[in-house]
Amino acid sequence: MANLAADGRFDRRAALDNAQRLAQQNKLPQAIEAYTQLTRQDPSDWASANTFGDLLLRANRTDQAIREYLRVAHHLTNAGFFARAGAIYKKVLRLDPTHVEALRETESLNIQRFAKTGDQTKRVTEEQVRVEPAPVAAAVVENPAIAETTTAERDDRHDCTWSLDQPDPSPA
């Protein structure tokens, strides 16, 4: 293995450099394999996992990309990075606007982001941000242009009380 250091351990830096070089050269199968190895060796490297998802998407492996994005978003949510997790969920919803898990996790995420203990002015109830997958899916099927609009445009059109485009009010 070319990614082993002199002492026989995995050389993460060399593996990452190799993976990035392959991706820049548009050698998708080799880059995907390199990022697969990276994410297996270091499952907590969320930046590499996100790039791995992007490469899977470029290789038209959408289902695998969605699974990788969801894994990253779950970790970011658990670590308290709600805005970053929201951005990853937006990637999933751009790929599949009817993805039930992404819709539900986005709902939960927004409840966590805006429901601050002790701050009654920002308290948001579950009913205020309820996302029902069936109406969203029906709206997208009836009007495909909905999937192409930005979140802010949808917020204006549907009088939503929140947006993933807003700054993250949660502590860093």
Largest sheet: none
Q: What is the number of independent domains?
A: 2
From the alpha-carbon coordinates, what is the Rg to the nearest angstrom? 19 Å
Taking pLDDT < 50 over at least 5 consecutive residues as the criterion, the unreliable ranges are 149-162
Number of strands: 0
β-strand percent reads: under 5%
Overall shape: it is: globular
Distance between the termini: 39 Å
Order of helices and strands: HHHHHHHHH
Which whole number gives the mean pLDDT? 76
Task: Give me the secondary-structure category.
Answer: mainly alpha
Instruction: Enumerate how many helices there are, as a single number.
Output: 9
Fraction of residues in helices? 55-70%
What does it look like?
Helix 1 (12-24) packs antiparallel against helix 2 (28-41), helix 3 runs antiparallel to helix 4 (62-78) and helix 4 (62-78) runs antiparallel to helix 5 (82-95). Helices cover 63% and strands 0% of the residues. It has two domains: 1-60, no CATH class; 63-172, no CATH class. The longest helix is centred in the middle third of the chain and has 17 residues, at 62-78. The protein is mainly α and 172 residues long. It has nine helices and no strands. The chain starts with 11 loop residues before the first helix and ends in a 14-residue tail after the last helix.
